[in-house]
Specification:
The protein is mainly alpha-helical and 143 residues long. It has one domain: Winged helix-like DNA-binding domain superfamily/Winged helix DNA-binding domain (Arc Repressor Mutant, subunit A, Orthogonal Bundle), CATH 1.10.10.10. It has six helices and two strands. A two-stranded antiparallel sheet has the order 1-2. Strand 1 and strand 2 form a beta hairpin. Helix 1 packs antiparallel against helix 4. It is elongated and about 60 Å long.
Length: 143
C-alpha cells in the first residue's frame, strides 16, 4: 500500500489540527506554512475532509478549519479511505471496490493479499489522530 501525496498532506494537516484541537479553528495559511504544504492543494484536501464530516470550517476573520470530532474519534483508516479509497492491495480482495478475477477461487496470492488487507486495515482503523499526538510527544522526549 502506498499513500498518495493528498493523503500524506491530509494526515499532516490533521495532526497539526489535532495538536491544536482545544484552540479552535486554524487558518489554512497557518497549516500550509507550518507544515510546508502547497496552499491550493491543501484547500482541496481540506474541502474533501469537510464534506466527509472529518472537519468543520468557519468563514471570516477568525475562521478556519477545526476537527469535527475529537482526535480520539477519527481514525487513520477513515481518512485514507476518504481520500485514497480502498486499502486493499488488489481489486479481488477489496471490500469496497471488489472486482472479480477469473483465478480467484483457490488463489494463494489472493489469500495472502486478504491477510495483508486485513492487517493494514486493523492497524489504520485502530490508530486515531490522538494516537499520532501521543507519538509526537514520545518522539520529542526521545529526541
Amino acid at each position: 500500500m502506498k499513500l498518495s501525496k493528498k493523503t500524506d498532506y491530509a494526515l499532516r494537516a490533521l495532526l497539526y489540527l489535532s495538536l491544536r484541537y482545544k484552540r479552535g479553528s486554524v487558518q489554512i495559511k497557518e497549516i500550509s506554512a507550518m507544515e510546508k504544504l502547497p496552499t491550493k492543494f491543501l484547500e482541496n484536501i481540506l474541502l474533501s475532509l469537510r464534506k466527509a464530516g472529518i472537519l468543520h470550517s468557519k468563514m471570516g476573520l477568525r475562521g478556519g478549519y477545526s476537527l469535527a470530532r475529537p482526535p480520539e474519534e477519527i481514525t487513520l483508516g477513515e481518512v485514507i479511505r476518504v481520500l485514497d479509497g480502498t486499502l486493499a492491495p488488489m481489486d479481488c480482495v477489496s471490500r469496497v471496490e471488489y472486482k472479480s478475477c477469473p483465478a480467484e477461487l483457490g488463489c494463494a496470492v489472493r489469500s495472502v493479499m486478504q491477510d495483508v488487507r486485513n492487517a493494514v486495515a486493523r492497524v489504520l482503523d485502530d490508530t486515531t489522530l490522538a494516537d499520532l499526538v501521543e507519538r509526537v510527544d514520545s518522539l520529542q522526549q526521545v529526541g
